[in-house]
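User: Sequence in, structure out. Go.
Assistant: Echoing your sequence, followed by the structure tokens.
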Amino acid sequence: MSERIDDLARTVPTRTTRRSALLRLGALALGGLGILGLGQGTAARTDNDNNGAHADASAATPTTETIPQAGYAPVNGLQMYYEIHGRGEPLVLLHGAFGTIDLWGPILTTLAENHQVIAVEQQGHGHTADIDRPFSYEQMADDVAALMDHLAIAQADIVGYSMGADTALQVAIRHPERVRKLVPISGKYRYDGEYPELLAVIQQLTPDFFAGTPWEDAYLRHAPNPEDFPLLVQKIKTFFGKEYAWPEEDIRSITAPTLLIIGDSDAVRPEHEMQLFRLLGGGVDGDSVGLPSSQLAILPGITHGTIVFEGADLLLEIIPPFLAAPMPDAA
């Protein structure tokens, strides 16, 4: 695999263009290109609030305010940052690696027209300071459930992207009663669900590759400890370097109606997503046996890195109707 990366590096003549090539491939695996939508369409908020007042999390109940509530919740040793936008039924948004709430752009604001959107920033991301604890999907899922407890939210729709999609799957596995409907965007349940070339590229990334990029800019603007960016890069590399395969019975145990979404040129392999779809009850002849509660959407001309940016309009055509449809047992 390293030979393929070296071949890539030899095709570009300068250090700058080599860095751009590696960043482009790394972005596909990390989902970082979505941050190019930074600030587009999000509700007004105070960016430079690292030392500002922390909102009272106990007051973060359903809101009719157009200006988002923001706060820090004590969650499993973290001071976990969240924002609450809009009003309606609760919906939790989970970002991808190196992401921040800004990542969601018009997706967040559109969903907040009919939902109470709780957008979070996970351990070591954005406003949420890192702690001495490795990253894991299981731990992030537990953090989400604990945040819901703290905000007195019994159940919510969960929409996650990339790292957030895998975390959303774990919320549904570990805390099934908390999930009404599930939307993993570019999600997987096995390490080999993504193309190995992209996983290898991640291991070549260094903090220097991110200099002057939107990912570094977002971190420096939001993080309480901006000097910790190299630590985040290393922890992400370690996290994505670990092989895993969640038991198929865990996937089959998910009862929440699920909408799986990938791009047709995603970092997640389409055959893997089809396997995930089948484990969730999909891939059947609906005319003969009826429609399953799971659905699969493959967006044309979309990559992992562009799915929440260039693919935002497509996502907003399919996610709201899925969430608004009656629950299977209420049909």
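User: And one key feature?
Assistant: The chain has one domain: 2-330.
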